[in-house]
């Protein structure tokens, strides 16, 4: 399914990106918002268009496999998935993505971390994905019992994100990566490195996307 630029915007050539992700709600709604924001920037050289590798769900390796299948004959492809305690599938997903030259947007422990980083620092270690829930509700002003995975609630959160928030999230993601350099890395069966939580490659993915459409995120927001 394509997310095309709105018809009332001046269009540029398209940068079409195949994207596989676990969540139909969180990740898909988030990336639709990213494209919406990007396609309103006058300085852009291209419109950002995502073509999602459906269906959603499954383990990290399934996400990458869908991306591979959907992107046959295509150059630009990304996979977004979470650790979620699935160590073996997570490592297999990283290896498969690297083999197929797929840009990675993984989060350890899960995508909730990336959403929080748009609004606040969050550099602590967590035991499981539930540990993010209260902080996520707090920073986005949701009720204490709000279901943060429901489409309506995700939309409420994502609608509070602007380019300046993405810039902040990228900076916080960089800090996490820098801090991790002093820690012992985990290695996949094919010797690709990743770290225990908190860890993310989402900031690298967003920088890749912004560069491809001619936007310098450092001077925005």
Describe the structure.
By secondary structure, the chain is an alpha/beta fold. The protein has helices at residues 26-38, 60-70, 87-99, 111-117, 133-139, 151-158, 163-180, 202-212; strands at residues 2-3, 14-21, 47-52, 77-80, 103-104, 107-108, 186-187, 193-194, 199-200. Helix 2 (60-70) runs parallel beside helix 3 (87-99) and helix 4 runs parallel beside helix 5 (133-139). The radius of gyration is 17 Å and the shape is globular. The mean pLDDT is 94.
Largest beta-sheet details: 5 strands, mixed
Strand order of the largest sheet: 1-3-2-4-5
Average pLDDT: 94
What's the total helix number? 8
Mind telling me the C-alpha Rg?
17 Å
Structural class: alpha/beta
Shape: globular
Percent of residues in beta strands? 5-15%
Q: Which parts are unreliable, with pLDDT below 50 for 5 consecutive residues or more?
A: none
Head-to-tail CA distance between termini: 29 Å
* Helix amount: 25-40%
Secondary structure topology:
Blueprint: E1 2-3, E2 14-21, H1 26-38, E3 47-52, H2 60-70, E4 77-80, H3 87-99, E5 103-104, E6 107-108, H4 111-117, H5 133-139, H6 151-158, H7 163-180, E7 186-187, E8 193-194, E9 199-200, H8 202-212
Parallel strand pairs: 2-3, 2-4, 4-5
Antiparallel strand pairs: 1-3, 6-9, 7-8
Helix pairs in contact: 1-6, 2-3, 4-5, 4-7, 7-8
């Amino acid at each position: 399914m394509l997310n095309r630029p709105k018809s009332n915007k001046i269009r540029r050539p398209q940068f079409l990106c195949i994207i596989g992700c676990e969540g139909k709600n969180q990740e898909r709604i988030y990336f639709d918002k990213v494209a919406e924001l990007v396609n309103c920037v006058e300085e852009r050289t291209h419109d950002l268009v995502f073509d999602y590798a459906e269906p959603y769900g499954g383990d990290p390796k399934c996400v990458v496999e869908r991306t591979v299948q959907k992107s046959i004959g295509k150059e630009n492809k990304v996979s977004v998935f979470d650790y979620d305690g699935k160590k073996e599938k997570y490592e297999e997903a990283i290896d498969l993505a690297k083999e197929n030259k797929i840009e990675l947007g993984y989060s350890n422990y899960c995508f909730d971390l990336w959403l929080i980083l748009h609004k606040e620092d969050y550099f602590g270690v967590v035991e499981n994905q539930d540990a993010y829930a209260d902080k996520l509700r707090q920073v986005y002003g949701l009720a204490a019992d709000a279901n943060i995975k429901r489409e309506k609630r995700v939309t409420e959160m994502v609608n509070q994100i602007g380019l300046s928030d993405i810039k902040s999230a990228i900076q916080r993601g960089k800090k996490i990566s820098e801090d991790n350099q002093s820690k012992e890395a985990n290695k996949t069966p094919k010797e690709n490195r990743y770290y225990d939580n908190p860890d993310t490659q989402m900031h690298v993915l967003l920088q890749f996307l912004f560069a491809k459409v001619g936007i310098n995120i450092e001077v925005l927001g």
